[in-house]
Design brief:
Dna Ligase, domain 1, D-amino Acid Aminotransferase, Chain A, domain 1, single chain, binds phosphoenolpyruvate, 8-stranded parallel beta barrel, binds magnesium ion, about 850 residues, alpha/beta
């Protein structure tokens, strides 16, 4: 009876059914049949057959009907390769006509027969004959018998013919219309948006109906063994008496609708039909074990007999997905590696942050780049000092800025979320927000008026300071009012999965952490050390900014030395604290990087305040600001260039690191600090700084009599440093690629301004993705490979790492692992994603 020529295959244990020829539903049904579940006779039409049907080729429907025996009633359902790609809705009761109606009236009663016929006439009229659905909708108050009469009459009125009576004709029409619906433009665009290829095929399933209507216990329902929100085990589902298909799921509560297991809210199948219930649960368990997945089983009971019609993977939240995968592995149903592979690494960010509840209503005020995930609700403020006032009052606020600068750090810490008009994924706001795990949207479609303290939206609406908004950093949206938030989850299943992940992972994961609180988060997320501590961020805390400014303004060498001497103990205590928190793990400290003007006020008002604080004439302050300002600060006097021009700064930092090393080693395991030089482009820079730092180390050893070692490394952030990595590695124990600057310089693309045109660039396919987000394998990636290779040639034991934002990006991690990198380092909140993504590469 299997017939390639006819294009259909009876699904049996051994029939040749595959997902890529007949679709996922067909394959699943074959699995159910192999489990000896009571599946009614089922036939699958291949993608090819359905395609030929759509093109108008005639098929022998009589031969197809014969498979199902005498005068069958049938259902047709879609079977695409991926259930997410959609497909036409199911059509039930094909084969109903006047004669079958009369027979069923005798055997099953008039009401059941009417309902069966009505359902088919409605579906046929609307989906096959494409008649106006309104003509076939009836109020529940209309008796079924009357509804059926009107439906048949309406059909005849509209088509000019009586309702088709020949089952072969009916079936042919249904199959053809479903095949054509799949090939329609709208359906194609919809599924392509979900990742389906342009030529994705559709299979169709023809199945003998289990009626679900008539005498005795009859009805239909669904059952599953987990809660789809939490993943907790429980028997869950609905069953509706005298019903077909998924009616139980869509119907509201009523006397005919039962819960599956005992439930306070109403009657249950467990109580009404304990034996059938037990059988059903047993079958669903079998599905779970043998299909290695939590399945939702669609069943029908006809006159007391149970049928399984279909099963689909239980749709689930990210949280439930994790628990389900771990539970399946713990029950020995899937290996641990598979549990690890089943969880999309990125979905962890969703679990570890508060999230905007997708079910709550949302009025989108502005869209931008999703720079840091999570949800936050607060009042808008337009500057950092107001943010601090709000924080002092205990009122959550969201900092709204054109863009943020290091001056805003304190305000950012005082806020619960950040929204900016400008910037891209590696702009200041984005990097800081990810570092502190705070939701952030940058490059948003808003216009800020700082003086008026208002912001204007794309649609002309205006918001003022104090207005409440919700920030959805995962979607890149700002929403009006307080939208409901869902709490983060870090439960035992998460912890278990991550333990398994760490056990198989073969590339290290460290965190970028600047402050003790970052370090605590990093430790909590099981980072294997700090891969980048941006020390300049320490200078924005407390009174340090003032001392820093005094240093910048020092006219004489002694004055500068005095200011620097005051910074020393502050830095030292920072490092002692970091070493203490990270005890036993490596801590990589980057020497001062940004241009000095970032520590000075950017407007006149700020300059005036500073003049007062330093007791200097305003003109002195503005002159100094002018002197320090650069046309292109990103390519100006920053990083090692500053260290070489003002050696006192690096010397002070080195001393603070060594003194902290001695202090921390007294209380715990000996600390081996790592010191990293930023923005290097030439071998000589490294030599100079190395001599300087070795000198400080010798001095400290001399003064204290204590012994310690340290590792000196170089940040590869300029293309030249990557190309000359061989030279540079002669004086470096490690190379850490700063892919933010490296991307900026490889493309000649400003990391702070690219947000303005990045969307247009990505949309038009100039870049496949934002290169600040996903490492550009071809260009920047080549620099990474060249750098690692040339460095290791000179020094085989060289440690190679990446510490730009790409360190937390799964695709970029795959690239680094393939290139033989030792570790990646990313924002603390992305550490779990990186750990899981890295484990998936090794699984
Ligand atoms: C980098 O450039 O990649 C880096 C990590 O340094 P920063 O982001 O501080 O410039
Ligand atoms: Mg950098």
């Amino acid at each position: 009876q299997e017939s390639d020529i006819l294009g259909f295959t009876r699904i049996r244990r051994v029939a040749p059914i595959a997902v890529n020829t007949h679709g996922g539903r067909a394959k699943c049904l074959q699995r159910l049949i192999r489990l000896d579940l009571p599946v009614p006779e089922t036939v699958a039409l291949s993608f090819d057959a359905v395609h030929r049907l759509a093109e108008g080729q005639a098929f022998d429907m009589k031969a197809l009907l014969r498979v199902f025996g005498d005068a069958p009633l049938l259902s047709v359902r879609p079977s695409s390769e991926d259930p997410d790609w959609g497909g036409p809705g199911a059509i039930l009761n094909i084969g109903m006509n006047d004669a079958r109606h009369a027979e069923l009236t005798d055997s099953h009663g008039a009401e059941a027969a009417d309902a069966l016929y009505l359902r088919f006439v409605q579906a046929f009229a609307v989906h096959v004959e494409r008649l106006d659905p309104e003509l076939f909708e009836f109020d529940t108050s209309v008796p079924v018998q009357e509804a059926l009469k009107s439906a048949l009459a309406a059909n005849e009125d509209e088509t000019g013919d009586p309702f088709p009576q020949d089952p072969a004709h009916q079936l042919g029409q249904v199959l053809r219309s479903m095949a054509r619906a799949w090939e329609g433009t709208t359906a194609r665009l919809l599924r392509q948006a979900k990742g389906a290829p342009a030529d994705a095929g559709l299979g169709l399933i023809v199945q003998s109906m289990a009626l679900g209507l008539g005498p005795g216990e009859s009805g239909a329902g669904v059952v599953q063994l987990v809660d789809e929100q939490t993943g907790a085990p429980l028997v869950k589902g609905r069953y509706m008496r005298q019903a077909q298909g998924r009616a139980a799921v869509t119907a509201g509560a009523g006397k005919d609708v039962l819960y599956l297991s005992k439930d306070e809210r109403g009657g249950s199948l467990e109580e009404a039909q304990p034996e059938l219930f037990a059988k059903l649960v047993e079958m669903t368990r079998l599905c779970r074990v043998r299909l290695r997945e939590e399945m939702q089983v669609e069943f029908t009971i006809s006159e007391g007999k149970l049928y399984v019609l279909d099963a689909v993977r239980v749709p689930r939240s990210s949280r439930a997905a994790l628990r389900i995968a771990v539970q399946l592995a713990e029950d020995g149903i899937i290996p641990r590696e598979e549990a690890i592979l089943r969880i999309p690494a990125r979905s962890l960010t969703e679990l570890l942050h508060q999230q905007v509840d997708p079910k709550d209503k949302r009025d989108v005020l502005a869209k931008g780049i999703a720079a840091s995930p999570g949800g936050a609700v607060g009042r808008i403020v337009f500057n950092s000092s107001v943010a601090q006032t709000y924080e002092a009052r205990g009122e959550p606020c969201i900092l709204v800025r054109r863009e943020t600068t290091p001056e805003d750090i304190r305000g950012m810490h005082s806020s619960v979320g950040i929204l900016t008009e400008r910037g891209g994924v590696t702009s200041h706001a984005a990097v800081i927000a990810r570092g502190i795990g705070m939701p952030c949207v940058v490059g948003a479609s808003i216009r800020i008026n700082t003086r008026e303290r208002t912001l204007t939206l794309g649609d002309g609406r205006k918001l003022e300071e104090g207005d409440v908004i919700t920030l959805d950093g995962s979607a890149g949206e700002a929403l009006l009012g307080a939208v409901r938030l869902l709490p983060p989850v870090k439960d035992q299943w998460y912890l278990q999965l991550m333990d398994w992940a760490d056990a198989i992972r073969d590339i290290g994961v460290r965190a970028n952490a600047d402050t003790p609180s970052d370090a605590a988060v990093a430790r909590n997320f099981k980072a294997q050390g700090i891969g980048l501590c941006r020390t300049e961020h320490m200078f924005f805390e407390g009174d340090r900014l003032t001392v820093m400014r005094e240093m910048i303004f020092a006219a004489k060498h002694e004055d500068r030395a005095e200011a620097i001497a005051r910074l020393l103990p502050m830095q030292r205590s920072d490092f002692i604290e970091l070493f203490r928190i990270m005890e036993g793990l490596p801590v990589c400290i980057r020497l001062f990087d940004p241009p000095l003007h970032e520590f000075l006020p950017s407007d006149r008002e700020g300059a005036k305040e500073l003049a007062e604080a330093l007791d200097l004439p305003l003109s002195d302050v503005t002159r100094r600001i002018d002197w320090l300002s650069e046309f292109n600060p990103m390519l100006g006097m920053r990083g090692v260039r500053l260290g070489i021009t003002f050696p006192e700064i690096y010397e002070m930092q080195a001393r603070a690191i060594f003194e902290a090393t001695i202090e921390a080693s007294k209380h715990g395991a000996p600390v081996v600090p790592e010191i990293m030089i930023p923005l290097v482009s030439a071998k000589r820079e490294v030599e100079l700084v190395k001599t300087q730092i070795d000198g400080v180390a010798a001095a400290v050893r001399n003064e204290t009599g204590a012994e310690f070692t340290y590792r000196l490394g170089v940040m590869v952030e300029t293309p030249r440093a990557a190309l000359r990595a061989g030279d540079i590695a002669q004086n470096a124990a490690f190379l850490s690629f700063g892919t933010n600057d490296l991307t900026q310089m490889a493309y000649g693309l400003s990391r702070d301004d690219a947000g303005r045109f990045m969307n247009a660039y990505v949309q038009q396919g100039v870049f496949p993705e934002d290169p600040f987000h996903t490492l550009d394998f071809e260009g920047v990636g080549e620099l990474l490979k060249i750098g690692a290779e040339r460095g290791r040639k000179v020094r085989p034991e060289l440690t190679v790492a990446v510490c730009g934002e790409h360190g937390g990006n799964p695709e970029s991690i795959a690239f680094c692992r393939a290139a033989g990198f030792d570790y990646v380092s990313c924002s603390p909140f992305r550490v779990p994603v990186a750990r899981l993504a890295a484990a998936q590469l090794a699984a």
